[in-house]
Amino acid sequence: QKYAEVQATAAEKLGGATAMETDVENGTDYGAMEGGNASNSEQTSHPISDEERSEIKAEVLEASSKAFGTCCSQFFFLVLVCMCLGKLQGAGFSSIWILSPFLFIAS
How many CB atoms lie within 10 A of CB 63? Predict the structure, then answer.
């Protein structure tokens, strides 16, 4: 799944639950500020357990990890292409800089 889809799903599932959480130290219910009343029948009838919350967080973490990995690999490829083009234009660096990632992977 795409990162934005996973994040939207998590916000939908966790959004209602986090808005209804009570601050233990101050004894305030922040859900009352949003909707005008603290009792929303849809949110109170389906509370999210800690297990479901941890599963949702794991899904978001996995999706963000995939997105970050894709971003890094594309950045690496872009730098490699720029170095190849620079070398074709007559840049003064050694060709080993272009070959080194492939040699590192092969070793």
Answer: 19
